[in-house]
Amino acid sequence: MHIKRPLHLFLLLLLWLSSCKTISVFDQYAYAQATALKVDAMNLMDKATSTYTSQQAEVDAVLTRLEKVYEYELHRPKNGITVKMWELLKNPDRNLFGGFIKRWKDQSQLSAAFIGEAKVQVAQAFDMIVELESEKIKENNPQVTNFINANQ
């Protein structure tokens, strides 16, 4: 009888600690999709020295993958911070991936210098999402807060 009481207390403590978590647990699928999408986005951005229309099929394919990843993240519990980061990354009115694609479409071609600068920002945004997913950084990390505040 005495052995069960500490076990019950331990299990209650574990339950309580897991309920305090404000962000989803690590998800291998989400991590793999985010890292693969980063590679695809970086490769696509390199092609912006070509005309947008010549790369339209690839742009559409990457944007579709981005929407699929976003939709997956949207339906994971306790995932509001990650969802917000994906929304900022894909928003065409911001200076991240969505804004880059919009600018490319509007201007038809972009300079290599601009692409290089934009890739740094977009890569950092992807890295932050990946690091948040892998729990290398926490949702209240100043980097995450600054990312969200700077891109709203």
Largest sheet features:
none
Task: Name the shape in a single word.
Answer: globular
The number of strands is: 0
Number of helices: 7
The portion of residues assigned to helices is over 70%
Uncertain ranges: 8-21
Kindly estimate the percentage of residues that lie in beta strands according to DSSP: under 5%
Radius of gyration over C-alpha positions, nearest whole angstrom: 19 Å
Kindly name the structural category.
mainly alpha
What is the N-to-C succession of helices and strands? HHHHHHH
Distance between the termini: 57 Å
Average pLDDT reading: 84
What does this structure look like?
The structure is a single chain. With 152 residues, the chain is mainly alpha-helical. 71% of the residues lie in helices and 0% in strands. The longest helix has 22 residues, at 112-133.
Keywords:
152 residues; mainly alpha; 71% helix
Brief digest:
The chain is mostly helical and 152 residues long. 71% of the residues lie in helices and 0% in strands.
